[in-house]
Amino acid sequence: MEPGITPGAARASAGLAQRTPSESGGVGLVLGAGNVTSIPVLDVLYELLAHNRTALLKVNPTQDALVPVYKRALAPLIEPGLLRIVRGGPAVGTYLTGHPGLVHVHITGSAATFDTIVWGPSKGEGAAATKRRRREKRPLLKKPITAELGGVSPIIVVPGAWTDADLAYQAEHIATMRLQNCGHNCIAGQVVILSSDWDQADAFRAALRRAYANAPERPIWYPGSPARMDLATEAYPDALVLGDRLLVEVDADADATALETTEYFAPVLGVVTVPGTGQEFLDAAVAHANDKLQGTLGANLLIDPATERSLGAGFERAIAALRYGSIAINGWTAFGFITPTLTWGAYPGSTIEDVGSGIGVVHNALLLDGVERSVLRGPFRPFPRSLPIANGGGRLTILPKPPWFVSARTGATVSEGLTRYRVDGRIAGLMKTLTKALRA
Question: Which of 109, 194, 205, 358 has the most CB within a 10 Å radius?
Answer without folding.
Answer: 358
